[in-house]
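To: structure desk
From: M.T.
Subject: fold request, one chain
Message: Could you run this one when you get a chance? Sequence is below, nothing fancy, just the single chain.
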Amino acid sequence: MTNGWAPWVLLMLLSSVLLACGGGAESRPVTTPSGRPGYTVSCEDPADCYEEAGKLCPTGYDILDAGRRVEEQRVANALSTMGAGLSNQPAQRHTKVKTDALIQCR
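Reply: Done. Structure tokens follow.
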């Protein structure tokens, strides 16, 4: 016999793992220092950044600036959020290294 909250705990744990893993690249349009349109692209895996830049600029692109940053994410303990009586459990910390690039299409 299982507890009524057991499936919810499993669902919350799986959701936390998926949120922590992330993946892919994010981009948003910006104006470059020269006044031309461009994009900022952020990703965990530099290959994802190159793939996103290729989609945004199918005729090619120039990387105007690039760098890496450390991003820390705190994920609440799934058992404490489900009221399982473990509210004194600390949130888990996940550290990610992200690559950021400023690109301009050719």
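Reply (cont.): Residues 5 and 22 are 26 Å apart (CA to CA). Let me know if you need anything else for the meeting.
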